[in-house]
Automatic annotation (TrEMBL):
Localisation per UniProt entry: Cytoplasm
Name of the protein in question: Mannose-1-phosphate guanyltransferase
GO MF annotations, alphabetized: GTP binding; mannose-1-phosphate guanylyltransferase (GTP) activity
Lineage of the organism: Eukaryota, Fungi, Dikarya, Ascomycota, Pezizomycotina
Family: Belongs to the transferase hexapeptide repeat family.
Length: 364
């Protein structure tokens, strides 16, 4: 089977982290985002994966060579010379996606969920039509494009309503599809949108179905959602009794949903959790309080620091008795002084913060 992952552009929404690494290589729950997806695709029997990118593929080449070996898949870049939207990249990769009659998966690089590739492929085969999109139920459909089904049909899609004012349904496009290669004939090689052009034409011909996603879903393309997605992912691991989580019996684990790399060192009298991930070679001092945060590799949190709703970038240092909160994001190699307070600061790489940041702002 085949798949294409729409990686796209510069990852500006996830700055300052993406100033150092391309978004697919930023660790989500201690594993690059793209690795979660490649692993799930490979375990569903996918052998050919295309990454549609429009910048700097060379920074990802080495990591992807390792994944090719690790998961026994072929990975190819499809490089756009101009951004081609969400449908153009499929046409650009036609040589691979259209090389045989088997359907191919399409997924947005920012989406985390319990990827349902096997069940999705079975469902798609059963109805025998051109495409299936994964949908997820949301509480506030007015912020999204909502899927409306044909009357008296559980899965055939009639139309999409963008940001509906009155209630028409609560299922939204989850950014994961399975399509037959014939769909490529509907797409021209130009900047074009699969949601606004390709799907409506498929609906008109009665060729598009929806598949309900079980469990959590999140687009983790920006820091606030990256943190929320981490919480959902850790909760899902807890539900499945995953061995990846640090046992709740550890004295420092508070409230569960904690993932700590085995190489990290944790000081005395810490309270960690709920919803915390700590990457490789991180050193946490004594009496530190961490909740709802992500600490990336090689960082150092000094004694009695208090961190909540924060992403601590690689190789960063947080001083003694410092306090970070309210979706603060530290880029690579940032240093926060002792007793400094940061409220929603977005700190660019290699900066040293010695004064309080009282209101959310970008620190250049």
């Amino acid at each position: 089977m085949k798949a294409i992952i729409l990686v796209g552009g510069f990852g500006t929404r996830l700055r300052p982290l993406t100033l150092t690494y391309p978004k697919p290589l930023v660790e989500f729950a201690n594993k690059p985002m793209i690795q979660h997806q490649i692993e799930a695709l490979a375990s569903a029997g996918v052998t050919d994966i295309v990454l549609a990118v429009n910048y700097r593929p060379e920074v990802m080449t080495e990591a992807l060579k390792n994944y090719e070996k690790q998961y026994n898949v072929n990975i190819e870049f499809s490089l756009e010379t101009e951004p081609l939207g969400t449908a153009g990249p499929l046409k650009l990769a036609e040589r691979i996606l259209g090389k045989d009659d088997s359907p191919f998966f399409v997924l947005n690089a920012d989406v985390t969920c319990e990827y349902p590739f096997k069940k999705l492929a079975e469902f798609h085969k059963q109805h025998g039509e051109e495409g299936t999109i994964v949908v997820t139920k949301v509480e506030e459909p007015s912020k999204y494009g909502v899927v409306v089904h044909k009357p008296n049909h559980a899965s055939r899609i009639d139309r999409f309503v963008e940001k509906p004012v009155e209630f028409v349904g609560n299922r939204i496009n989850a950014g994961i599809y399975i399509l037959n290669p014939s769909v490529l004939e509907r797409i021209e090689l130009r900047p074009t949108s699969i949601e606004q052009e390709t799907f409506p034409s498929m609906c008109k011909d009665g060729q598009l179905h929806s598949f309900d996603l079980e469990g959590f879903w999140m687009d983790v393309g920006q820091p606030k959602d990256f943190l929320s997605g981490t919480c959902l992912y850790l909760s899902s691991l807890t539900r499945r009794g995953s061995k990846l989580l640090t046992p709740a019996s550890e004295s420092f684990v508070h409230g569960g949903n904690v993932m700590i790399d085995p190489s990290a060192k944790i000081g005395k009298g810490c309270r960690i959790g709920p919803n915390v991930t700590i990457g490789p070679n991180v050193v946490v001092g004594d009496g530190v309080r961490l909740q709802r945060c992500v600490v990336l590799k090689n960082s150092r949190i000094k004694d009695h620091a208090w961190i909540k709703s924060t992403i601590v970038g690689w190789n960063s240092t947080v001083g003694k008795w410092a306090r970070l909160e309210n979706v603060t994001v530290l880029g690579d190699d940032v240093s926060i002084g002792d007793e400094v307070y940061v409220n929603g600061g977005s700190v660019l790489p290699h900066k040293s913060i010695k004064q309080n940041v009282d209101t959310p702002s970008i620190i250049m």
